[in-house]
Amino acid sequence: MKIRYVLLSTVLCLVFAASYIARPTAAQGAPKRIEVTASKFKYEPSEVTVKKGEPVVIVLKSTDVAHGIKFKELNLQAKVDKGGTGELAFTPDKTGDYVGHCSVFCGAGHGSMTLTLHVTE
């Protein structure tokens, strides 16, 4: 009788352990979507904060002419046509502050058109 109890206990423990180990991990949530509007010669908002390791989609909209965004340090780039929308999907893998510049010449103030991306823990 004692052996049956020990065997039953062992089997139950193994079943419990197997079900715990085999439990599917929660799917990572949908990417955080951040809308950024580009117009001569600014981005609105001009600063965005995201978390390291969390998927992000920057939805870039143009209100006037073609624009783009390029974060050289992160090797990220997107372009959007006049009046259009583009998306820049990424998962930041390092913290820091990164400055993106308009990557499509849009006029005399083009050089001052920047978007700051803050990546935090």
From TrEMBL:
GO terms for cellular component: cell envelope; membrane. It comes from the Bacteria. One of its GO terms (molecular function) is cytochrome-c oxidase activity. InterPro entries: CcO_II-like_C, Copper_CuA, Cupredoxin, EfeO_Cupredoxin, NosZ/Cyto_c_oxidase_sub2. Residues 29-121 form the Cytochrome oxidase subunit II copper A binding domain. It holds the Pfam family Cupredoxin_1. Keywords: Copper, Metal-binding, Signal. Residues 1-29 form the signal peptide. It is found in: Cell envelope. This is Cytochrome c oxidase subunit II. It comes from Granulicella tundricola (strain ATCC BAA-1859 / DSM 23138 / MP5ACTX9). The lineage of its organism: Bacteria, Pseudomonadati, Acidobacteriota, Terriglobia, Terriglobales.
